[in-house]
Design a protein that fits this description.
It holds the Pfam family YbeY. InterPro entries: MetalPrtase_cat_dom_sf_prd, YbeY. It is a single chain. The protein is α/β, with parallel strands linked by helices. It has one domain (2-87): Metalloproteases ("zincins"), catalytic domain (Collagenase (Catalytic Domain)), CATH 3.40.390.30. 29% of the residues lie in helices and 29% in strands. The chain has two helices and four strands; from the N terminus they run βαβαββ. The chain has helices at residues 16-29, 44-55, and strands at residues 2-7, 36-42, 63-67, 80-87. Helix 1 links the parallel strand 1 (2-7) and strand 2 (36-42). It is flat and about 35 Å long. The two termini are 28 Å apart.
Length: 90
């Protein structure tokens, strides 16, 4: 499982090693053994911009998820699970 972790928050310091270890444990428990996942830690301003751009909603939110797989609906499988954006301010 490949996990890309990016922290774009100007004030918060996220430990990517700890986050990656915990996330790998969660994904293993969910039986996701293969694939890729992208995780972005950001601030309220940036997540509000993404919320407006992709979901046409105003204001910040805690989490945005952009799944790439459609396993439950018989859709095509891709190694990319998706992107998760987390506002550290929320």
């Amino acid at each position: 499982m490949e996990i890309q972790i990016t922290c774009q928050h100007p004030m918060k310091n996220i430990d990517p090693v700890k986050v990656r270890m915990k996330l790998k444990r969660i994904l293993k428990d969910l039986e996701y053994h293969d694939g890729e996942l992208s995780l972005l830690f950001t601030d309220d301003k940036h997540i509000a911009e993404l919320n407006h751009k992709f979901l046409k909603r105003e204001g910040p939110t805690n989490v945005l998820a952009f799944p790439m797989r459609d396993d439950d609906h018989g859709g095509p499988e891709t190694p990319m699970l998706g992107d998760i954006v987390i506002s550290v301010d929320a």
